[in-house]
Amino acid sequence: MKWFIVVVMIVSPNSLDTPLWIPYISFDNQQKCFSYVQEHHQSIYAGAVKQYENLLMPNSIYCVEKDKLKNIFGDKPTPKTNI
Question: What is the DSSP-derived secondary structure letter of residue 16?
Answer without folding.
Answer: S
